Amino acid sequence: MKTNIKTRLIGIIAVLVIFIFGIFGIPQGFSGAAVRQSLLNRIHLGLDLKGGMHLILQVRVEEAINAETDTDVAGIQSDLQQNGVSGAMVTKPDPNRPDFIQIAGVPADRTNDVRSLLESRYSSRFDVAPGVGNTWTLTMKPTVETEAKQRALDQAIEVITSRTNTLGVSEPIIEPYQLGSYQILVELPGVDDLGRVKDVIQSTARLEAHEVTGGPWPDKQTAMQSVGGYLPPDSELLQSVPGAASESSTGEWYELKKIPIWGGTDIRDAQPGHNPNTNEPEVDFYLTSAAGDKFAQWTGANIGKDMAIVLDNRVQEVAVIKGQIRDQGNIAGGGITDQRVKDLSMLLRTGALPASIDFSQETTVGPSLGADSIHQGVVASIVGMLTVMAFMLFYYRGAGINADLALFLNLVILLGFMGFTGATLTLPGIAGVILTIGMGVDSNVLIFERIREELRAGKSPAASVDQGFAHAWTTIVDTHVTTIVSAAILFIFGTGPVKGFAVTLTFGLLANLFTAVFVSRVIFDANLSRKLHGEPISI
Amino acid sequence: MELFHDVNIDWLGKKWYFLGFSLIFSVAGLLSILFWHGLPLDVDFRGGTVVRVKFAAQPDADRIRSAIDKAGLRDARIQQPYGPAANNEVLITLSRSATSEAAIDQGRAAVVATLAQNYTGGAQNQGKLDLDTVGRSALTSWLQQDDPEHLGNTTDAETRYQAQTNAVLHFRDDEHSGIIDSVDSLRGAVDPAVLTAFEQNAWLSGFSVRSVEIVGAQVGKVLQHQAELATLYSLAGMLVYLWFRFELIYGVAAVVACFHDTIITVGAFSLSNQEISLTVIAAILTLIGYSMNDTIVVFDRIRENLRLSRRESLSVVVNRSINQTLSRTVLTSGLTFLTVLSLFLFGGEVLRGFSFALVVGILIGTYSSIAVAAPMLVAYQDWRASRGRAATLPAAKKARV
């Protein structure tokens, strides 16, 4: 019996040491600051305690579909032309249906050619259907559409990740947000410069070169009148930033070809620089070699025409093509500042977002609120714990020490768990710790009350302890299971802070099974073994 | 010591009092939800913007309101959270209509800009640095530009001013809740040269934005739906577990008791016009688990006693079981209540709703396991007897004790 107790005691001390290591790791020193630092290294604080930003972003995936079908429309047009089918109109008739393409005006004698063309080249991605009056409709297949949307989401996550990395945020979280459709969860601990972060994340940074087919016009109405009130489906009207064409230009409108000569994914590098003549800040960018070759070919064939550099649907620069350009260009003018040049080159380097992004939720906790929350949480925990401990000592006397030891070990194991698993401690998580103290002592009370009952029934102390633990065990399991079921549901449905609560509560109650039942029992046994048979115990 | 020794209370005999008590509280809560305060939902569910601002002195709500009104944010609500008065905090709430989905961030920007305009302290502060609102990167670059220690544009200067920035922010955020009383109070925390620079070119606006929460309508709706589902799944999970461990009727009785607790707790939020947030839902789910604890302890004892004495009537057994476990029930609930009370009193403003739900819920949960769940078992048996069926309550599947 005695050796048995000894091995169990050694086991408990080993557990204690292991979990204390889990909480603190190996501290750099024993000063208050060093211990505090090693504690913070092990226990990860949530955003609500550390301060920082929590964002949920909505990716407008239908824009990615739109861009994709725009390319298809141009592709179909050139395919038809190459096959000598003239007079056909390829359009996307419904602006709310980016996945839907219509071909009208196919000459009756060429129907078969069009059919075989569409079926051979487009049926893998579209459902091709003939309509009335020699029209054809192409609807993007749902699987293809979902894939394209998923791709856009993945790309957006990748781009945002590399952008936030340049902000110097430590331990950012950027991942798909499961509760929404095509949403991204972004957590940036310690960030306090809201405006800049949002700019950096939200900028689409889609840089493109387009052929200019008309303009400039002072406003949109004039532009529409000039093109005869009808814009060809492969063209678009865009406004320029002031100073786009010359020093004196003030934001005119241009008609551009919709399909860019090169686009956002063709940028290889971008760096902040200065104009050698005027010393104005500018962004110098370089194209990938494939896009550079294409661009050189195109500019060589189009000398004398106008070309526009477009950033996020605003014309940045309009220039006449004077000679072949291969892979280099710059963005300047429009009163661009040094900070903007820095940010913009970074954005271009990290790549364009495949679609624009809306903020659907934003929570920012300032560092001072976080610090106050930690302080208040710790005070509440200590007051709660001391109250419970004092009551147990008062009410159960000797056995109260037993319960208090178990409770203390429970807390050590809970925090050690958090350290080992890298789980995040949030403010509700601290509340979970406090609740664990309250609920954890429940197991002790159950056992002690039962032991008292057995003692009252006249059993010997040893037998009473034995019976008390045996009878209380099932009840303890039942009560723990119900609370853990609740916590599990919270973990599944909850986000951020609430998840942290579910984690501490679950860990705490699991640890409680060990401390209140096993550890407490060992202490009782150790106590009994030192007593004579039948000598009363303090409970 | 012992609080309850050999208690012998006829709990079932008081069932009409209990029924009355439960009815009064649930009906009052329901009436408040339907006709009085409605169901006050937090920005998490409702959508909208909440900006939490702390002021150096007791804020003047009327002044803030008129400033916000002037900025064109008409239906802003200005609340002063209850709690220690020294806290000096104000919650500025904009409803969803004031912040359209597309321009979700504008409300926050407008509130901050309005406050900044109205707390300038006069023209002499024009162009100076506000130490109460400045962020980390802005403060570092201000120091580098001002260069009070004449270090020039070196990497050494950068690390040095970063250290000074950290010292200021540590002083402000970690030690003084985000507000600096006077520039002079920084003496000792920063280098004398930096302090002199602050004295000349910095000022204190006396307010600091502590947190901002913006939720789009869409997200709010999704969260609301999730919260409802989570509560229902939780109740269903309990029902299934009790069905498996005891009998279906035990599960039904326990779930009815939990539902009763949930209704009364939510009703308490409506009656006191406090907002229900995500963490409050977390508290309610925890209460479902906790209230189930108490119920299970009583049911376990009922089951045990039924096996021991099959001759006695069910109500006698139930009464005895409640009395036997009363000491434990009161003790553990009391202890959990104490910890939750400490959370309510010391846990701070952010957790107020959460701890309020727990304070109310633990009281009600304890009451309901004695006054709702156990009497339901007896009522069920009486009902079966009245229809001429076997009158014994199933003593449950063979317990694995």
What do you see in this structure?
The complex is a heterodimer of chains A (539) and B (401). Chain A is 54% helix and 19% strand. Chain A is an alpha+beta fold and 539 residues long. Chain A has three domains: 2-51 and 366-529, Multidrug efflux transporter AcrB transmembrane domain (Multidrug efflux transporter AcrB transmembrane fold, Up-down Bundle), CATH 1.20.1640.10; 61-145, Hypothetical Protein Ta0175, Chain: A, domain 2, CATH 3.90.1070; 206-334, 2-Layer Sandwich (Gyrase A, domain 2). Chain A has a five-stranded antiparallel β-sheet. Chain B has 401 residues and is an alpha+beta fold. In chain B, strands 2-3-1-6 form a four-stranded antiparallel β-sheet. In chain B, strands 4-5 form a two-stranded parallel ribbon. Residues 396-401 of chain B have low confidence and may be disordered. At the A-B interface, helix 7, strand 17, helix 11, helix 13 and helix 14 of A face helix 5, helix 6, strand 6, helix 8 and helix 10 of B.
How much of the sequence lies in strands of chain B comes to 5-15%
Highest-level CATH class of the largest domain in chain B: Mainly Alpha
Strand elements of chain A, count: 18
Strand order of the largest sheet of chain A: 10-11-9-14-15
Task: Note the main sheet of chain B.
Answer: 4 strands, antiparallel
| Helical/strand content category of chain A | alpha+beta
Oligomer: heterodimer
Rounded to the nearest angstrom, the radius of gyration of chain B is 29 Å
N→C terminal distance of chain A: 22 Å
Q: Main sheet of chain B: which strands, in order across?
A: 2-3-1-6
Q: State the separation between the terminal residues of chain B, measured CA to CA.
A: 29 Å
User: Judging from the principal axes of the Cα atoms, what is the shape of chain A?
Assistant: elongated
Mean pLDDT of chain A: 84
Spatial extent as radius of gyration of chain A: 35 Å
Largest interface summary = A-B, 80 and 88 residues
Q: What percent of the residues of chain B sit in helical stretches (DSSP H or I)?
A: 55-70%
Look up the CATH topology of the largest domain in chain A: Multidrug efflux transporter AcrB transmembrane fold
The shape of chain B is: elongated
